[in-house]
Design brief:
The protein is of the alpha/beta class and 609 residues long. The strands form six sheets. A seven-stranded mixed β-sheet has the order 8-7-6-9-12-14-13. Strands 18-17-15-20-21 form a five-stranded mixed β-sheet. Mean pLDDT is 75; it is low at 1-41, 53-97, 112-128 and 437-445.
């Protein structure tokens, strides 16, 4: 008798004995060792598996079921050392390096994973910290998220570590930008990437030296890294550059993992403006770290999500992007708040990302010649910098502008509030305490305040159409699925209890408009019409047309009698079809590009005015 087993979709037959699970780790795709020993009759099966699989696709690890004889009472297995097993496999398999990279990328393409997400639940991306970054907003995500309404297009103008965009990616279209190229790499990997949610570890046999990639060995030896670490960085960077020829998205993903690895192993105090004492305990600990091992760890932890939105990531100065980009719902601005230039503090990441050899010597480190300097980092320029960026943002934002700052910045809380008032007299400022990094001069963690300035863009043409004026206004909305569960008859305004209906009712009451409701069962209703509970809604155009006789004659009569000059319609397409043959220039529609989320977002803006 034989037992049929499946390993990585390859069916093999092994003798039906007692089974012991043995994990085989494939190192460099050629070296194999066993955590437990096996019987000789296993080896032929093992050889067949590896020979067939290694030619077709990359294997990180496989689970193999090894048999042992029932009659073998003593169960003394044949001892196989790691060296002997390595020799056994190497004599059976020959791997061509040039084809290995293609095989690995092919495997990555075949085994893409999707993550199921919910628009209403917390997701793993909220907890992803892409970089140990000054001003990183990872710990402020819960504070910031409520201001990015679902279904909007959000521009993160100075994205840095991309943590904000990653947190709202699941329910908004996200556009991120940063003048630093390493931030752009993170944006491509975590924001624009909508294909790869997980990565496979690059096997060590694929990582080979390239004579063109020796920048870290020649320039940064014993500055931030050891000689061995510099060699590893150059070799991994060379391999990632080769991946770019086959798959640009994976190039960004793996390069982002390498950047995060440098952030962990470098002998720095959290940034690259200077190296820490080479003989300190922290420095000695980091000297022992392997770049490849840290790179593998970051690769394994890599995680992003797929969405239905077409997200984008740019690498431009903020003003240039605002000049060329289309209109955006919400613009989020998180500028530097002190004199420290990010181009200097993270120049190693920029150098690794661009792999540009044009660097100049400095007493503390090696800085790129293309070092960017922000006006927000100069006390004498910061006020004009805010006015300039707000002026451009007001032209592009359709709903809100959000500014993150701190109470210990180059410009005071009060002064920044005054500048914001020049653009929105009703600007709001919300505060939240936050702990920042431990200072050398103190054994305690200090508290600073995160300030969030919220500006409303009131010169939006779509808003003006819905605001109160001299015209007598009627609002027409539809019934909803969610209803008040009562057996007796109650007023229609109280019967319907959906979120969109309630927000529409608030909009009507706030502006003293009149309201009519189109019901799938009862036709046209006034808010005080009493109705029973029911379960019926329009699901196709035929039903919409059939409902017209219950709605149109009555509606025409009310419009004529009450002499309405403006009729605001807040409902979906099927309910609009019911009244489409009487629409004239008095009708104004609240439009939605993203279903109910866009309706809710716009109603919230209207109700906040």
């Amino acid at each position: 008798m034989q037992n049929k087993s499946k390993i990585h979709n390859i069916e093999i037959f092994i003798p039906k004995f007692y089974f012991n699970k043995i994990q085989l780790d494939l190192f460099n795709n050629a070296l194999v060792y066993l955590k437990k020993a096996v019987f000789p009759d296993t080896l032929e099966v093992l050889r067949g598996i590896i020979k067939r699989r290694i030619k077709n696709e990359f294997i990180n690890n496989i689970l193999f079921i090894a048999p042992s004889h029932r009659s073998h009472r003593t169960r003394e297995p044949l001892e196989l050392t790691q060296r002997k097993m390595t020799e056994y496999i190497e004599t059976s398999i020959k791997i061509d390096y040039n084809s290995r990279l293609k095989e690995f990328l092919t495997f990555q393409e075949k085994h893409k994973k999707s993550i199921q997400i919910s628009l209403f639940n917390e997701i793993v991306s909220d907890k992803i910290n892409t970089l140990q970054y000054r001003g990183n907003k990872s710990q402020l995500i819960d504070f910031l998220k409520p201001f990015f309404y679902q279904g909007n297009t959000v521009l993160d103008l100075m994205a840095g570590s991309q943590s904000v965009g990653l947190a709202i990616k699941h329910n908004s279209r996200v556009i991120t930008n940063d003048v630093q190229y390493y931030s752009f790499i993170l944006g491509q990997a975590y924001i624009e990437n909508n294909k790869y949610t997980k990565l496979k570890i690059i096997p060590k046999d694929i990582i080979k030296p390239d004579p063109r990639f020796k920048l870290f060995q020649t320039k940064f030896f014993n500055v931030y890294f050891t000689k061995g670490q510099c060699i590893e960085i150059d070799n991994i960077r060379a391999t990632i550059e080769r991946i770019k020829k086959f798959n640009k998205i994976l190039f960004y993903c793996y390069l982002s993992c390498l950047l995060q690895s440098l952030d962990i192993i470098a002998r720095t105090a959290g940034h690259f403006d200077g190296a820490i004492n080479g003989n300190s305990e922290k420095a000695n600990k980091r000297k022992k770290k392997s770049v490849y091992i840290e790179f593998c760890k970051r690769t394994k932890k890599f995680s992003t999500i797929k969405t239905n939105y077409r997200n984008k990531s740019f690498n431009l100065p903020a003003k240039k992007l605002l000049e060329k980009i289309e209109e955006i719902d919400i613009i989020y601005i998180d500028p530097p708040y002190n004199h420290r230039q990010y181009s200097r503090y993270y120049h190693i990441l920029e150098t690794c990302a661009k792999y540009d050899k044009n660097i100049k010597q400095n007493t503390k480190g090696l800085y790129p010649e293309y070092e960017f300097k922000s006006d927000f980092c100069y006390k004498e320029r910061v006020e004009d910098a805010f006015r300039s960026i707000l002026h451009l943002s007001m032209e592009k934002a359709k709903k809100n502008i959000l500014i993150s700052y701190t109470n210990i910045g180059l410009i005071s809380k009060e002064k920044l509030f005054e500048i914001c008032q020049e653009f929105d007299p009703n600007v709001r400022c919300i505060e939240r305490n936050i702990r920042y990094t431990r200072q050398k001069t103190s054994n305690s963690k200090k508290l600073e305040k995160e300030l969030l300035y919220i500006l409303s863009v009131k010169n939006q043409s779509w808003i003006a159409k819905f605001l109160p004026d001299q015209k007598k206004t009627l609002v027409i909305t539809s019934c909803c699925k969610k209803k008040t569960m009562s057996e007796r008859k109650i007023e229609s305004a109280n019967r319907y209890n959906g979120q969109m209906f309630n927000m529409t009712k608030t909009f009507v009451e706030k502006n003293s408009y009149d309201l009519l409701i189109i019901s799938a069962k009862f036709g046209l209703l006034k808010p005080n019409d009493k109705i029973t509970n029911y379960d019926l809604r329009l699901t196709n155009q035929k039903q919409s047309i059939q409902l017209r006789p219950k709605v149109v004659p009555k509606l025409k009569k009310i419009i004529k009698t009450e002499n309405y000059n403006r009729i605001i319609v807040i409902m979906g397409k099927l309910y609009r079809t019911v009244i489409e043959n009487i629409i004239d220039d008095r009708f104004i529609f609240l439009e939605s590009k993203n279903g109910i989320f866009d309706y809710l977002s716009k109603l919230k803006i209207l109700n906040d005015f």
